[in-house]
Amino acid sequence: MAEALRDEILAARLPAGRHVTVKEIAEQYGVSATPVREALVDLSAQGLIDMEHHRGFQVHRFTPDDFRSMIEARALIVDGIFRCATDRLLQAATPAALTSVRRRADEAERASRAGDLDILIGYDLRFWHELGCLVGNPYISDLLDRVRVQCWAFAVPYLRRAGDLKGQLWSGHNDLVDAVDRHDAAAAQRIIQEYNEHALSLLDEARPAH
What is the pTM of this model? Predict the structure, then answer.
């Protein structure tokens, strides 16, 4: 239930600021109130839903400043992986271990170039999750998952309003895998920096002028 609602938020079908009730969602999905309430509490812990006293729940509204802070946090987490956990990551990144990561990278890149957000988001989240898991520290991978989901939750409405995204979205997944496969931490860090700069510039282009 939590995954289904998270996907609705990431697809902007549950837009930021939308008020929802347990009854409404339970009726929509044909389930009892208990799993819906548990799912909403779970999403609240992930920062995607706000619990409102006596009013139910509201989809969290992230601001551009929030997004910039997310990018900074994301950069610090990934930079920490390549600075402090490089040995563990590179030891775990055997050709066999990278096979699945490469599959995710291929699909994410294909969706990125086509400008297909719905497909991209799923593969992009799986790609980063599997890459983060190679470090062997579940706290790091969980933190990265949380920040990446929040980044997408904020960015999707802006990107959808931007129109045709074909060729506009970051598609360096395989470049990053190649750097990890070569045990080239410096190249990986450079790719990550370029990725973060791309995310911020794309947001600036997508946001309407005031």
Answer: 0.89
